[in-house]
Design a protein that fits this description.
- By secondary structure, the chain is an alpha/beta fold.
- The protein has two domains: 133 residues, NAD(P)-binding Rossmann-like Domain (Rossmann fold, 3-Layer(aba) Sandwich); 191 residues, NAD(P)-binding Rossmann-like Domain (Rossmann fold), CATH 3.40.50.
- The chain is built from 13 helices and twelve strands.
- Strands 8-7-6-9-10-11-12 form a seven-stranded parallel beta sheet, sandwiched between helices. Strands 2-1-3-4-5 form a five-stranded parallel beta sheet.
- Helix 7 links the parallel strand 7 and strand 8.
- Helix 1 packs across helix 12 and helix 4 crosses helix 6.
- It binds 1,4-dihydronicotinamide adenine dinucleotide.
């Protein structure tokens, strides 16, 4: 099958080329993002393959349809960046990689927590500079704390188990409770109670109209003073203006984010020689108690292999007219 793979990085071409030996698709790698202005590159391809910051809106989808594209393969679990209604109207099927390695994201959330807490990033720089002082590096025992997990699906459940392994008391909030997780010791509770009781809160629900700005002025005010907030899910779960206010007035003690509301204009490029135009991220970067990574929680060897294999299999199934087990349908997710 002829596939146009957008937002291609060196690791995408490496892993997809390697795994494609078993599939024999014809893949063309484009470094550019897919958006309305670049959709013409897809002319003559049956399939396009995209990542989280490609813009799959109605205009792009209409162009893809005109160019003969039949299927869009997402190299991600999240599909909030796709206009599913438009895809269904245009008869374009959408497939994704629902679970490539929940552990990779859960472990990155833990890395953010431990780094923010024990300040290893600062200690590393200090020691390299010959500064062996411990002043202002005090941390706390994570295992003695209460951790709130919002969204206890594949990643949230893995994260909850890791935190219980450290000795934490874990509170869970989800639309649907996971009985196995409750049996393992997670205490399910309402959102307000979770916000009020947790020392660390980690977001693992998808971005939907219901969860957009879940963390806002009001929900922030329900949190304990000094709370640590972690977001490895999607940037727009947090109202950036509101979190900046809470950091300025000291209510939020730590913020660790792998995702950012306006990330599609920034992430996955070296911008170190550019003048940063985004004042909100500039403000976030200025706080000593904020740690930002550029959407890398998924970025492990195991996850990259699994993303490539599942995507190539999704497209093979489409080509052979088989059932698409990883399809995302508007009619199903809009209920
Ligand atoms: P999942 O579908 O297994 O779990 C999501 C959970 O959130 C489900 O249990 C669902 O019931 C719950 N949920 C949905 N709406 C909710 C609401 N309004 N309130 C409370 N809970 C709600 O998804 P998975 O695989 O655990 O992924 C979670 C998210 O992680 C993805 O949607 C994606 O945005 C993000 N992600 C981030 C990555 C990164 O590299 N930073 C990589 C992969 C995923």
């Amino acid at each position: 099958m002829k596939i146009a793979l957008f937002s291609s990085k060196s690791y995408d071409s490496a892993y997809f080329s390697e795994e494609n030996k078993a599939f024999d698709h014809q893949i063309t790698f484009f470094e550019t993002r897919l958006k309305n202005r670049t959709a013409d590159l897809a002319e003559g391809f049956e399939a396009v393959c995209v990542f989280v910051n490609d813009v799959i809106d109605r205009e792009t989808i209409c162009k893809l349809k005109d160019h003969g594209v039949k299927v869009i393969a997402l190299r991600s679990a999240g599909f909030n960046h796709v206009d599913l209604a438009a895809a269904e109207e245009c008869g374009i099927r959408i497939v994704r990689v629902p679970a490539y390695s929940p552990r990779s994201i859960a472990e990155h959330a833990l890395a953010l927590i431990l780094t923010l807490n024990r300040k290893t990033h600062k200690a590393y720089n200090r020691v390299r500079e010959g500064n062996f002082s411990l002043e202002r590096l005090t941390g706390f025992n994570v295992g003695d704390r209460t951790v709130g997990v919002i969204g206890t699906g594949k990643i949230g459940a893995t994260f909850a188990r890791i935190m219980m392994g450290l000795g934490c008391h874990v509170l869970g909030y989800d639309k649907y409770q996971n009985k196995e997780l409750a049996d393992a010791g997670v205490e399910y509770t309402g959102l307000e109670k979770l916000l009020g009781r947790s020392d660390i809160i980690s977001l693992h629900c998808p971005l939907t109209p219901e969860t957009a700005y879940l963390i806002n002025k009001q929900t922030l005010s329900m949190m304990k003073p000094g709370v640590m907030l972690i977001n490895t899910s999607r940037g727009a779960l947090i109202n950036t203006n509101d979190i900046i206010e809470s950091l300025k007035n000291g209510h939020v003690g730590y913020l660790g984010i792998d995702v950012y509301e306006q990330e599609e204009k920034l992430f996955y490029r070296d911008r170190s020689e550019e003048i940063l135009q985004d004042d909100q991220i500039a403000r976030l970067m200025s706080f000593p108690n904020v740690l930002i990574t550029a959407h890398q929680a998924f970025f492990t060897r195991e996850a990259l292999e699994q993303i490539a294999v599942t995507t190539l299999q999704n497209l093979k199934d489409f080509e052979e007219g088989k059932e698409l087990v990883n399809e995302v349908r508007y009619s199903e997710v809009s209920q």
